[in-house]
Amino acid sequence: MKGKSLIFMILAVVLGVGLGVAGTVGAQKYIFEPPAQSSASRGVSKDSGVLLPIGEFTVNLQGGAFLKTTITVEVEDAKAEALLKEKDAFLKDRVNSVLANKSLADVQTLAAREKLREELINKLNEVGGNKINDVLFLSLVYQ
After folding, report:
1. How far is residue 132's CA from residue 49's CA, in Å, rounded to a whole number?
2. pLDDT at 48
């Protein structure tokens, strides 16, 4: 009697683990969003502009969450880079202003981050004279 119950317990554990693994793989494949597109798949070549680090930002989001991110911008050329380096404080102020007005929902999904990227490009170009081509999130941590 003990042998049969031990075999059933082992069989139940193996079956449970198998179903758990299958469920996880299925959920990742069919439910969750695909990984973010790389810049190459978005039609941007690797050497299309000069990269200018803006800095690391830690802001309180609307609703009590916080966001920590490192942002780099792609600018047209070295001349634009020199111009924007002089306006570094203004660029950082715009980034802080945009990020502080966002909620956790505004940074959690890929679509929301793309919308945030476009908003940052527009706001930074107000300062940068339309010299900024893209905003890159090198890290993005929210809680």
Report:
1. 9
2. 74
In the numeric block, which tokens belong to residue 140? 């993005």
Q: Which residues contact 112 (CB under 8 A, 6 or more apart)?
A: 105, 106
What per-residue confidence (pLDDT) applies to 39? 47
Rounded average pLDDT per 10-residue block, the chain, 143 residues: 80 83 74 55 60 92 91 90 90 92 90 93 90 91 88
Helix (H, G, I), strand (E, B) or coil at 143: coil
- Dig out the tokens for 64 from the structure: 């009590």
Q: Going edge to edge, which strands form the sheet with 66-75?
A: 50-60, 66-75, 132-142
**CA dist., res. 88 & res. 106, Å (int):** 25
Count other Cβ atoms within 10 Å, centred on residue 88. 14
Predicted pLDDT at 120 = 93
87: tokens are 């306006």
Query: Residue 57's beta-bridge partner residues?
Result: 69
Other residues' Cβ atoms within 10 Å of the Cβ of residue 43: 8
Q: Which two tokens stand for residue 95?
A: 């980034």
